[in-house]
Structure formats: structure tokens, C-alpha cells
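Dissemination and training. As part of the outreach component of the grant, students in the summer workshop were shown how a complex can be specified as a set of sequence lines and then modelled as a single object. The example used during the hands-on session is reproduced here so that future cohorts can follow it. Participants entered these lines:
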Amino acid sequence: MRFLLVEDNLELAEAVVKRLGLDGHAVDHADTLAMADDCLAAADYDLILLDVMLPDGDGREFLARKRATLETPVIVLTARSQVSDRVGALDQGADDYITKPFDFTELEARCRAVLRRRGGSARNDFKLGDAVFDPNAGTIVQAGQTIDLRNREIRLLEVFARYPGQILSKSQLLDRLFTHDAEVTENAIEVYVGRLRKKLDTVGVRIETVRGLGYRICA
Amino acid sequence: MTQTLSIGRRLTLLLAAIAALLALLSWGMVSSFSGQAAARTQDNVLAASVATIAETLRSEQGMVRLELPYSAFAMLGAIGEDRVFYRVSVAGETLTGYDDLRGRHTPESPGVVLFDTLDYRGETVRMASVSRVVLAGLESVPVTVSVAQTRNGIAAVTAGLSRTAAFLSVALFLLAAALSAIAARASLRPLNEIAQSVSRRGPSDLRPIRRPAPSELAPLITSLNRLMDRLGQSIRRSEDFITEAAHRVRTPLATVRAQAEIALHTVTGEEEKKSLRRVIRAVDESSRSASQLLDHATVAFRAEDLERKELDMSDLTKAVVKSLSPTAEMKDITFALDDAPALIRGDAILLQTALRNVLDNAIKYSPPDTTVRIHVQPVGNTVQVEVCDQGKGLGLGPVGHLTERFRRGDNVEGVVGSGLGLTIADEVMRAHDGSLALRNLVERGTGTCVLLVLPLA
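and obtained this result:
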């Protein structure tokens, strides 16, 4: 996916760009609303992550101004959801908001939810053998047959699909799949890999166990 | 606020007092005039009487003779049942009548009627005297005719007139008092209208008053408008302050968290990963506490003067469920919402904050792959929102104190939380005259139910 991140805090922006990059997303960063304008004029984005307080204005006002012509879904990054009607009212132009500090797993879940509501975006599909995996819809389609996946299975398969043939350790998968507020052990990964294997059986995609190292997907 | 006597009552009393004074004055004047008129009438009749008697004086063989005419006394009878006394004296000697009826003065010039009021035989009498010179033989002798009458009749007439005057004065006073009450109310009407238009406003409506008002009220309205303007500014400032403070605290936290997550992906040592996870958990914990403290402040701030708009609890719940769905999805938790239209009156922001905290708790304490059931329905004259999870329940400890500040259940190990979530929800319910109840689900295995009850609109 291609993101536009509008955020004036450079450290945070750098971390977000890097972290989303790890998941294979391309992120452009604008630190002012003026620069965001330029970026929007130059490229198409799947999603905009918009901070509320920016040096050259209020993100929500920018959104309210742009909304008429802007098709791209917007997730507002806010320090606080709502203090009063006055502060919250302009959020109506946004598709969703996420409260800082946010969990990247949650940010991705919200992006996916927004894209699903907006009807998805075809270019995020993955080819797995003769099957097509659409992470936004949560489906694998092969020869007209559709398999539905649950959230965590989608997420797991997405990670595998992004790194075909590469070995991913249980610990790496754990950090991508779970938020950090729940104590989960690596056993949970085994459980989800087990479920995913069962669903992928008919598709002809295998998830191999590499003893002592982790897992790898083979299409 | 100490209340002094109302302006309306003060005005009414003042006007009524003035009316009473005027009524008393008019009564006094009418009584005195009527008394004088009655006295003058008696004087006129007495004068006529003495004149008639004096007319009949004649001299016969050198002696003064008198024939008392009946009409002289009959005319006196017209006034009332008063007793009449008379005396005719010739050169100081009583010719006929009451010898002891003597005035203090004798009329000096003949033909002039002299009036006097004196005590005679225990009664007050009015006496008229006239003197006349009669030729008796060759001498001219002065003859004095006096007629006196008691004053009971005119006293009765005066008293009667005075009573009538008093009655009219009282009637006039009552009419004036009623009119002053109406006048007071009418002149206070603009004040009441302004007071009503202000009290009809919602708590957040701080627009200036633009009603036409009498010039006396203009300074009051101007200062009221100024006060509202200042209040509005101060509210906006505190809202801005909360937003700004949240931004300043949470943006660095977000930076730390994001950097820690990146580090977590790049380091390989188990020990380092463990510490980074601890960092992230600590950031989560402090950001959660910060947001709940802000929620708590918002609740306290808004509950002071609660907005009571008509709202559908099922719409509010749907919106909160939608916004929390991605969070729930990450744990493969499904929200099962079963709702019916349920109208209540309240503050949408506060109610959403309460619901968000309750649902957030449910997600937090639910194991993955479970369902959180939400029921919104009107029951009797209340609206009930029940949120049931399939977590481990509230533990065996007492359940009632869990809504206290910073209090957490005794089986929460391993879950990040501040202990403010239920306190916030409970405070919002109380502000809306509702309640929050907790119970362990025993009949369906484990789980917790939070029941929010609000009065139906």
C-alpha cells in the first residue's frame, strides 16, 4: 500500500515510515499541510495518515477543506478522540481515527477496516500459486472458489506472502501479530500456523516448518 | 444566593401604601366636610327659628308679649329627635322658657344672630340668639331670644356620612391595590421574559442575549453577555488546554513506542526483545492512564452542567462498536450487537466515553476468539445496555468496589490497565441518573456482565 503520512514530529514520522516499510508499504512523509498538498497533487495514495496539530494549521480543517475533492480514505492521528463537540465535530470528514501512541498492528487493522469499507484496493492482492489472496477482503480465491480467513489468519498469511521463500522466526511473527498488552507465548503462533495450514490445504500453498528457525511459505 | 424581597412585591406594597394613605386622606376630608355641612344646616334652622320667634314679639300695654309660634319648633324637628330649649328674656329677665339657658355672650347689635356651643344639662347644645328692641310703652326694651338644640341628630348624620365615606375609601383602596399588583407584574414582564429565555438555553449555549429590552435592563444584559463571553472563552481555553496537553504528552510517547517496535524487529537477542516489550508495555500503560485521566477530567467537566439531548442509545452503541471493531478484530473477538431503538436524554460525548471504557474492558479481559455480547433494549421505563464477555470473570473478591478509582479486580495479572475505566462509566451513569452494575456469569461458564441502566426519555 502507498501511504501519505502528515506528521510534524520527525522522530515519530521516521519511525512510522520505517515500521510500515518493514511490512512492505511505501510511505511518503509530509511535515506540513503545504507539503501534504504538494504530495497529493503528485501521487495517488491508498490511505492518508493525518496528524491533527501541525505547524501550519489544524489537520481537521485541512481535511474539511479537501474532503470535497479527495477520494482517498483518511485516518486521523489524534492525541485524544474527543473533548467536546467543538473539538470532535470536524472528525466527521475522517474515515477513522487512532489515538497516539498507537500499536502498528492496530493501525494496520484500522487501515484494513477502512479499505474494506471503501471497497478495497485491488493492487494489494497477492498471487499464491494459482490462487489470489486479498488481505483487505480476507479471502483467497482459486478457480471461482472462495475461502474466508479470520483476522489473525489474514495477518499471518499477509506476512508470509510479503516475504515468499524467506524464513520467519516465531518471535518475528509474534511481534507482527499481537499487540504488546497481552502476554502471548510462541505457542499461539503454532496454533495459528496450524489453522492456516488447514485452510490452505485445498489451495496448494504450504507453510513449511524449518526446524529451530521458524516457518517459510512455499507456493 | 440570599433572596431579598422581590421587586414585584416591593412595588406592589409601595403602591398599595400610597393608595392607603390617599384613601385615609379622602375619608378624613369627606367626614370633615360632611360634619361642617350638617352643622351649617343646624345653624341655619336655628337662625330661622329665633328669627320667627323674634318676629312675634310685640308690646301690649307697656309689656312685652310673646306668642310662641308652633312653626318655630316644628322646623327644628326636621333635623332629628333632638331636644329643644328656648329662653326669651327682656332686659335680662326671663320672660318665658328655660331660665338657666344662658349664653356666654349676649348679642350686642340687634338683628344679628349669634351662635354658640355650650354644655347644657349634661349635653352639648348649639344655641342661636338674637336680640331685638321692642317699644314697651315709652321705653325701648332689649329682648333676647335664644333657641338651643342638642347635637345628636347631626352627630348621627355626620357618622353615617363618615361611614359611607370610609366604605368607599376601603373599596377604592382595594381597587388601587389590585391595580398596583397588575402594574408591578406588567412592568416586570421584560425581566421575566429575559430570565426565561436564558434558562431555556442549553448549558453550552453561550451566545449573547439579543432580545429587545427596556433601557433599565440594558446594563444588566450587557454585563451578562460579557460574562458569558468570558465563560465561553475560558471553556474554549480549557478544552484547548486539554487537547494541547494530550498532544504534548502523547506524541513523544508515540515516538518512543514506534521506535521501540522497530528495534524489536531488528534486534535478535531474547533479553533485548524482552526489555523492549517491557518498554512498549510501560508506554501503553502510561498512555492508557493518561487517556483515562483525561476522560475522567472530561466527565467531571461536562457532568457539572449536563447536556440533555434526545439520543438513541442503540445508535451511540453502534458507533462505539464500529470504532472499536478493528481493536477487537486483532484478538479475533467478535462483537454481537443486539439492539432495539432506545431513546434517552443525555450527553453523547459522555455516554460514548462510558461505552468505550466498558467495551475496552471487555476486549482487554476477553481471551482471543471469543464473542462480546451487547444488548441494548428499553425495559420498562429504563434503557438497559448489557455488555457480557467470555473472560475469566471478576474473580472471587467483592464486586461492588470495582467502580472505585484506581481499583482493579484481584485477577487482572498481565493485563495493562489503570483501574479508571469502570469509575468513568459509573460516573457518567450517575450524572445521567442511571446506574452501573457488575456480575459474574456463572450459568454460562465464565465471563463478566456490565449492566448500564439509564432512564428512558
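Helices of chain B lie at 7-55, 70-77, 152-199, 218-266, 270-303, 313-330, 348-365, 421-431. Students were then asked to discuss how this feature might be tested experimentally.
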